[in-house]
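User: Hi! I'm working on a homework problem where we have to compare a predicted structure to a textbook description. Could you give me the structure for the chain below?
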Amino acid sequence: MSEESGIRSYIPLAGMLLLLLVVQICALAVTPLMIGAGYEAFEDPDSAANPIFFIVLLLIFTAVLLWLIRKGKKNVITAIIGFSIVFIFLYIYSAVFLFLLGPTIAGYLATGVATVLSTAVLYLYPEWYVIDVMGVIVSAGAASIFGISLGILPVILLLVLLAVYDAISVYRTKHMIDLAEGVIATKSPILVVVPKSVGYSYRKEGIAIHKEKNERGAFIMGMGDLIMPSILVVSSYAFLEAPSVFWTLSLPTIGAIAGSLAGLVVLMHYVNKGNVQAGLPLLNGGVITGFLLGCMLAGTWGWLPYI
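Assistant: Happy to help. Predicted structure tokens:
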């Protein structure tokens, strides 16, 4: 392998890292607006029942999607995913435009227009860069909503449970692989794409494996892998009382960001070997470890009961 081709092989990894970092920065940027708009999903963010409720909903949603896939109901799956995307667009744009323009006709009109245009562009011209931009917006919005809805301890519990579930569903039952392949077959834009070559087109090539090269033309990552670790980043920013050391970020929040990026590097190392990998054990493990190291450096443990 030449030095040039070796360097090029790292470009997709840099692209994935950049996408995750941008999602987290955008999620942090809109968090004050989400809080101001009162978009918390749970009344008591510190309740241990919240992550259990989240997991139960996830299991139900997964079971429904698997059933629809086996029944060949691709249109229904597309409609469900499309509705979810529109719902998140509405939340994000309303928080932004109602903050900028107030609860006026202009504010509501801007929210509606932005939602319709974003959805239309995403579905009518699903090129990889369009999918990535909209994927960042959706992922940042979802991470912010759940991050302000769950206290730090419930988030950590949720991430641990999700990591275990992801590992079991990929390596043991393998139903997550069936789910991913089924949803991808509907061409629903619930992933981000990083091309391996300059001339790659998602609209023309999709993510099918090239027969000549025996590999995909791009790296892909589900939005869930961007959203889940980012929830702890937002939660630590929203709920943790710790001194800021950079911008308005504390050491625990910075540690969470760094840990999630480190987890992604390890994940991509294994993905590059061509193996099917569960993303959340490494991503969630990385963000939790980074957060705890940040707490250790800052001496901030107030989020723990009785401390």
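For your comparison, note the following. Strands lie at 191-195, 209-210, 215-216, 218-222, 244-246, 249-250. The chain has one domain: 10-298. Good luck with the assignment!
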